[in-house]
Amino acid sequence: MTFDVIRYRPDLSDAWDAFCANAVNGTFLHTRRFLGYHGDRFDDVSTLLMQGDRIVAVFPAAQARRDATMVVSHPGITYGGVVHDGTLCGERMIEALALLSAHYGAAEYKRLRYKVVPHLYHQRASQDDLYALFRLRANRSRCDLSCAIDLAERPKPSERRRRGLKKASKVVSVAVGAEQVAALWRVLIDNLERKHGAAPVHTLDEMKHLIALFPESIELFCATIEGQVEAGIVVFKTPKVWHAQYIAASDVAYSVSALDAVFERAIEIAHSGGIRYFDFGTSNESEGTVLNQGLYQYKHEYGGGGVVHEFYDIDLSGSHHADF
């Protein structure tokens, strides 16, 4: 069954977002509302797969910033991929990815980088794209290791984390709500500069904008000590997963294990709200080739386990075809 591949246009924004709301593997990160906050930062080359006038799938994508020969799905979000309503199963997914590859090859791109949506975020099992990537002879170019708690089967936290929570509980209050964003950003900026010589991916103004766009999907949990915000996390909430997008703590917060109280509160609220997974995020450097074992171990001690974030490259030169 043949699909038509069409280039995304701004007048399709509402239809795109309505489709994402009912997709089996989409989150608010795939919406045009979220992608749009990037402005002109990326050269957007997103596409839609159509069957007549019906959307079958959407494919958020942009040209790689440092390589004009590569298209990425998507360089501005954690994962991209073919977002669909569950109908792209088996051979239909192979056909969809082959058509997308042909579309971008015709536009003279040499490679398509596909950032897989981790299975935790699927509304129901839908890893047909991984099989299709195999059939298209895609090369796994990167693999990051994340850590997530299955809240339905959570192991007991380590003794160190239990001691940390007991210590934090004596001096820390946990505030929930976005009104603390400016105070948390001061901690975050200092934390990243001090430890890594880096800055947050999102500026304070960008985060304020995203919170305004997605008040139901972005939450802050902050540790206050003597009335001062000293630690906290920014959580991106999706239907099955709460993801800690940012984690920050001052030296004062570290001295009293403040993050133990923050994480425990967030995990407790997620579990009571019927969320299946709490995702701490990846612990990698150097394009996935280096694992920060200390950071990963810290996350693991809350009762988490490993979840991979996979990146695949499809050669668009025409020398690789699906094994039909």
Automatic annotation (TrEMBL):
Protein's name in the database: Acetyltransferase (GNAT) domain-containing protein
Q: Which residues form the BioF2-like acetyltransferase domain?
A: 162-285
**Which Gene3D superfamilies does this chain map to?**
3.40.630.30
Show the coiled coil region(s): none
